[in-house]
């Protein structure tokens, strides 16, 4: 058992018994479940919409190399600069170089899972640069010293009372503030940072090849401020965020809004195609786009796993997953959690270290059913398990146990032997870890095959 697996089991065991945590999550996800059907009403045929969205991502990723080159050509025409980062460290080094060039002391950034993936905040702080999260949920998590709990809703596990207490401890406010008052406190603190910051950093919901732009969708306006107010703006995106054309947004933006937050469309939707142009009054003087690979091309090269890159980070699979709702986002020990995290994390961070996540599933298929781009998530979890076995990541005892089980299952005579006590003892000893989390297996005294023969008086 790896250290990551042991930590996962320990954390999930504790969290699954936390009734208060479960109540908070069920309350917040209950609100989400109430509004998503309203958002879906804008689509006449939701299944057809999901099929078209999947085709948009399929087309973009099947010709990803061409689209990346097209983006770079269009983006650089307008004075933008493209940086290619093979891994997290290359991305961090490039960002630090830009910060040093601009003599940057403060960075404002909007919510971005890819910056969490490369641990940007910690890196900047180590290098003496203040990095301020401007999304309210991320700001709450940063104050508390925690990573995001959820892809879309970073502080989903906190109640309004938890947030009020946190603000009182960290900012000296009253512990009885309402959500509106807490939001106002955050707004007042963050507006000062926009003025101070030399550099703004965001992620990207979509990368648009044909116009050389990035698309950002949000509800607070903080991403728009982070990208437009500082003189230097950096957008960091995984290469899988590509779509072919700006016209694809007519479907992808409403779909992401519906499955992410239950809205028909989010409040702020921006397309940014480069730095401020001559004659324009708003926008950054310089703009960089950093394309991050970080093993995404390895997933792209694997035909069985490729469709996991279609993900638009709506978080719907997390909200429906019985495992996620019981063990919580932090138990996973990875940036991407829930079903999609259990699929892509082993392929991005190492199958041997994270294969256990693909086993932390009921395989109920609810994640596949809800996915707006029709990723076959529960099948991909099985693919991960299969690949871990193919690569020899199982113990000798486990291999032998399944070999014996397979041999016995294929022979009716063996299956009918030792019914009752003997078979029960053998199987429970064969699968010795079963009874750690389950009741012991118990076999009937007679198999169905034997009962059928007796009933029919067959030999």
Structure, described:
With 459 residues, this protein is an alpha/beta fold. Helix content is 53%, strand content 10%. The mean pLDDT is 94. The chain is globular, with a radius of gyration of 25 Å. It is built from 24 helices and ten strands. The strands form two sheets. Strands 1-10-7-4-2-3 form a six-stranded parallel sheet, sandwiched between helices. The chain has a four-stranded mixed sheet with strand order 8-5-6-9, sandwiched between helices. α16 runs parallel beside α20 (377-390). It has three domains: 1-41 and 314-391, Fumarate Reductase Iron-sulfur Protein, Chain B, domain 2 (Orthogonal Bundle), CATH 1.10.1060; 43-294, Rossmann fold, CATH 3.40.50; 396-456, no CATH class.
Structural class, by secondary structure, is: alpha/beta
Strand order of the largest sheet: 1-10-7-4-2-3
Compute the number of strand runs.
10
Gross morphology: globular
Can I get a quick summary?
This protein is an alpha/beta fold and 459 residues long. The chain is 53% helix and 10% strand. It folds into 3 domains: 1-41 and 314-391, Orthogonal Bundle (Fumarate Reductase Iron-sulfur Protein, Chain B, domain 2), CATH 1.10.1060; 43-294, Rossmann fold, CATH 3.40.50.10420; 396-456, no CATH class.
Topology:
Elements (H helix, E strand, L loop, with lengths): L2 H14 L2 H22 L5 H17 L1 H14 L3 E5 L2 H14 L4 E4 L3 H5 L2 H7 L3 E4 L2 H9 L15 H12 L7 H18 L2 E4 L3 E3 L4 E6 L3 H7 L3 E7 L3 E2 L5 H13 L6 E5 L13 E7 L3 H6 L14 H5 L1 H6 L10 H12 L1 H4 L1 H4 L6 H5 L6 H14 L5 H14 L2 H4 L5 H10 L17 H9 L3
Helix pairs in contact: 2-12, 16-20
């Amino acid at each position: 058992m790896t250290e990551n697996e042991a930590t996962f089991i320990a954390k999930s065991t504790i969290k699954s018994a936390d009734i208060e945590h479960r109540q908070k999550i069920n309350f917040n996800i209950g609100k989400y479940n109430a509004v998503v059907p309203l958002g879906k009403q804008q689509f006449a045929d939701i299944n057809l919409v999901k099929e078209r969205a999947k085709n948009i991502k399929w087309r973009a990723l099947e010709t990803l190399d061409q689209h990346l080159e097209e983006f770079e050509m269009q983006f650089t025409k307008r004075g933008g600069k493209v940086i290619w980062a093979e891994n997290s460290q290359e991305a961090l080094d490039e960002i630090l170089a830009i910060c040093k060039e601009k003599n940057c002391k403060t960075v404002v950034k909007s919510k971005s899972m890819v910056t969490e993936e490369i641990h940007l905040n910690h890196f900047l702080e180590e290098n003496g640069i203040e990095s301020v999260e401007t999304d309210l949920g991320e700001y709450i998590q940063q104050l508390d010293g925690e990573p995001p709990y959820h892809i879309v809703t970073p502080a989903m596990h906190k109640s309004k009372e938890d947030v009020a207490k946190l603000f009182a401890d960290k900012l000296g406010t009253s512990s009885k503030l309402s959500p509106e008052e807490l939001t106002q406190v955050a707004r007042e603190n963050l507006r000062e940072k926009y003025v101070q910051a030399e550099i703004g950093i965001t992620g990207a919901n979509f990368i648009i090849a044909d116009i050389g732009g990035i698309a950002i969708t949000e509800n607070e306006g903080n991403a728009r401020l982070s990208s437009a107010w500082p003189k230097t703006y950096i957008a960091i995106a995984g290469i899988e965020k590509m779509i072919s054309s700006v016209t694809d947004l007519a479907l992808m933006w409403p779909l992401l809004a519906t499955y992410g937050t239950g809205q028909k469309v989010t409040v702020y939707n921006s397309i940014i195609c480069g730095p401020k142009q001559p004659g324009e009054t708003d926008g950054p003087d310089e703009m960089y786009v950093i394309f991050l690979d970080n093993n995404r091309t390895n997933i792209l090269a694997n035909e069985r796993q490729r469709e996991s890159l279609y993900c638009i980070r709506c978080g719907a699979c997390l909200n429906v997953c019985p495992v996620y709702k019981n063990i919580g986002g932090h138990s996973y020990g990875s940036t991407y959690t829930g079903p999609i995290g259990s699929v892509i994390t082993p392929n991005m961070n190492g199958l041997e270290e994270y294969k256990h996540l693909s086993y932390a599933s009921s395989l109920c298929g609810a994640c596949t059913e809800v996915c707006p781009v029709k990723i076959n998530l529960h099948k991909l979890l099985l693919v991960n398990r299969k690949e871990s076995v193919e690569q020899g990541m199982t113990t000798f005892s486990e291999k032998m146990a399944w070999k014996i089980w397979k041999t016995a299952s294929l022979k009716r005579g063996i299956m009918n032997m030792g019914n009752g006590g003997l078979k029960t003892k053998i199987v429970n000893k064969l699968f010795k870890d079963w009874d750690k989390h389950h009741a012991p297996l118990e076999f009937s005294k007679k198999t169905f095959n034997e009962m059928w023969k007796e009933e029919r008086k067959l030999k």
